[in-house]
Amino acid sequence: MALLKIVTYPEKSLSMPSDKVETIDDGVKQLIRDMGETMFQESGIGLAAPQVGVNKRILVYDARAQNPDDDGPEQQIIALINPKIIQASGSQVSENEGCLSVVDFRADVKRYEQVTVQAKDMDGNPMEFEADGLMAVIMQHEIDHLDGILFIDRISTLKRTMYKKKRLKQLKEETIS
Ligand code: NI
Predict the structure, then answer these.
(1) Which has fewest Cβ within 10 Å: 21, 26, 60, 136?
(2) How far is the CA of 72 from the centre of ligand 1 (A)?
(3) Residue range 102-140, pLDDT digits in tens
(4) Model confidence over 73-89: pLDDT tens digits?
(5) Any idea which residues carry the catalytic annotation?
(6) Distance from the CA of 100 to the center of ligand 1, in angstroms?
(7) CB count, 10 Å around CB of 71?
């Protein structure tokens, strides 16, 4: 297992649509395990492959997100391959949403309340499930990553512009110092 480097805005891989996974080979399985380890290390609850610079349609999330009341084993991940939202309904405000790839910024984001997700698991078995509440937010946020969309693309232009300016200034200062 290995920890991967999480890329941050404005890294190019974050704004690129990702390719479908055709074969779940050892490389893909290793990537998934490493993504899981990296996600827990960074205290995330979800992570998409473009966030580690790989433009493949793969995401992982903390298994406990599905059943918040369930004291399941710690650090267990669920991986989804080629996930897509096939149905969405209702609306909710995801308060203070954040992203490991969007440094030092959080915002309220309008999301669907319920989504139905279709995907393949790590063994290539097709799966379909419904998610609501926090799980629905995770699914929308992570699947957006696979389409090159960040949560800051879903907030007001004014807020987004302010964040982008702040971030570019921050990066400039990092380069100079
Ligand atoms: Ni994210």
Answers:
(1) 26
(2) 24
(3) 999 999 999 999 999 999 999 999 999 999 999 999 999
(4) 678 999 999 999 999 99
(5) 142
(6) 6
(7) 7
- Tokens describing residue 155: 């907030």
Report CA dihedral (86, 60, 52, 159) to the nearest 10 degrees: 60
- pLDDT computed for residue 52 by the predictor: 98
Which pTM does this prediction carry?
0.94
Domains for the chain: give ranges and CATH numbers.
Answer: 12-176 (3.90.45.10)
Ligand 1 centroid to Cα of residue 150, in Å, is: 7
For ligand 1, the distance from its centroid to the CA atom of residue 10, given in whole angstroms, is: 13
